Amino acid sequence: MLKRSLYDALLNWKANNHQKALMVDGPRQVGKTFLLEEFGRREYRDLVKIDFLVDEDARRRFGSAQSAARVIELVSLIAGHELVPGETLVFFDEVQRAQNLVTFSKYLVIDGRFDLAMSGSMLGVELGGVRSWPVGYLHTIDMAPLTFEEFCWARGVPQSILDQVREGYEEKTPLDDSLHGLLIDLFRQYLVIGGMPEVVQKSLNTRNDLGAVRQVQADLLSLYREDIAQYAGNRSLQVKAIYDAIPTQLDKENKRFQLKTLKDGARFERYANDFAWLVAARSVLRTVNVTEPKPMLARTEEQGRFKLYLSDVGMLLASYPAEVAMAAISGERSVNSGSVYENVVAQELAALRSPLRYYHHSRKGEVDFLIETHKGAVLPIEVKSGKDYKLHTALNSLLGTDEYGIEEAVVLSEANVSQGRRAGKTVHYLPLYMVGLVAAEASTPVTDSDALKGVRLDPIDFSGFSE
């Protein structure tokens, strides 16, 4: 089994949130089913899995159930034995095929005879018609392709090496040159292989046969296109045109998605739902422009100005000719590596639930990513693919504009750790393999309850206002 960091989130749910149903969402083929099955076998005495994709009879019976009591009765019949609270996990796989179960999940949790986990494909698209969401009774976890750290685990990189990387990041000190070189080589492999579990496993099984790897990636790209044809309805041609245009759009100097490539005179309003469909399907990562690089970045998002990246960098490289993948492996500068590196950064940020944003100004230039840190500060991130990684005019402009209040910035490249000063502010030059550690600085859109633990509010005395 490929080790996934998300397993700890499942353990946390079991320990603290099992009074809620668990929903694991994410792109197709990222290992949701496998992980939940492994979790159920390891952490429970009894795992009852019901797959609504392959079990037509279960799909019919559960899909027509009109009450939670009927659902519990059906689960008991399938299990064939007593359901012991705290020891039984019921796993509804491909739950989008029986959408009423999402509504009933609240009452299944209240009943308490088993812990409930759900997952499926295309949930962001297919569950839009759920009659009533079980607010307060559903805990959602997003699963992404393997991050670079998880890729390192799969490759057998010793934890002591990863600890050195973390120490170098935290102390902002360079790693040993030979170790740095090995990690850059491994990062280049990650660019080509990516983080889709089936692809990573194929690379391990075939000892890095890139031909075999590329074939699996081609099959996955075909599967994603089939999803568009099956689920996007009468807009499938337009959605597919957008999806197929992404590699070409990213290969241009201006990586912002150009609507005119779809149709002359095309307007965003006409295609807005098509872009939203791809985002909801988790097939693409959408990075929107902000007009002011100040805290609360969401205030100035421009929804019609954005870039699109693929959900997995390996699938992006598989969309290019094989020569591009070979150039990426060897670190050649003959190809536009910038778009590939940016895709990795977007992928790592998305894996940690950070909103994806960039900054573009007609006079001040463009900065690849902006994140809001846990401290509430805006941190600009530039991604560089060449040796001139210390040339960054737009970044200098941001640091030199006092009203923005930006105190530091990050530049990611293949160079070792170093620091510089621009406009009296610090610029951290970090190797690309530290991207996950940079991403961890970003705040997430979910409530950080740990930050409020131990903080208590004084009671407010209204007695003086009583009659």
CA-CA gap between termini? 68 Å
- Oligomer description: single chain
- Which segments are poorly predicted (pLDDT under 50) over 5 or more consecutive residues? none
- The strand line-up of the biggest sheet is 2-3-4-1-5
Helix content: 40-55%
Q: Quick check: average pLDDT?
A: 91
Shape: globular
Number of domains: 2
> Count of helices?
18
% residues in beta strands: 15-25%
Instruction: Tally the beta strands.
Output: 14
Biggest sheet details:
5 strands, parallel
The structural class is alpha/beta
Give the radius of gyration: 24 Å
Which features would summarize this protein structure in a list?
single chain, 467 residues, alpha/beta, Rossmann fold, 2 domains, 5-stranded mixed beta sheet
General description of the model:
The protein is of the alpha/beta class and 467 residues long. It folds into two domains: 6-142, P-loop containing nucleotide triphosphate hydrolases (Rossmann fold, 3-Layer(aba) Sandwich), CATH 3.40.50.300; 148-439, no CATH class. Helices cover 42% and strands 17% of the residues. The chain is built from 18 helices and 14 strands. It has helices spanning 6-16, 32-43, 56-63, 68-79, 100-111, 123-126, 148-154, 159-171, 177-193, 197-205, 210-231, 236-250, 268-280, 313-318, 322-330, 337-351, 393-400, 435-439; strands spanning 21-25, 46-51, 88-93, 115-119, 138-142, 284-290, 301-310, 357-361, 365-367, 369-372, 378-383, 408-413, 418-422, 425-431. The strands form three sheets. Strands 2-3-4-1-5 form a five-stranded parallel beta sheet, sandwiched between helices. A hairpin with a 5-residue loop joins β10 (369-372) and β11 (378-383). α11 runs antiparallel to α12 (236-250) and α12 crosses α13. The longest helix has 22 residues, at 210-231. The model has no long low-confidence stretch (mean pLDDT 91).
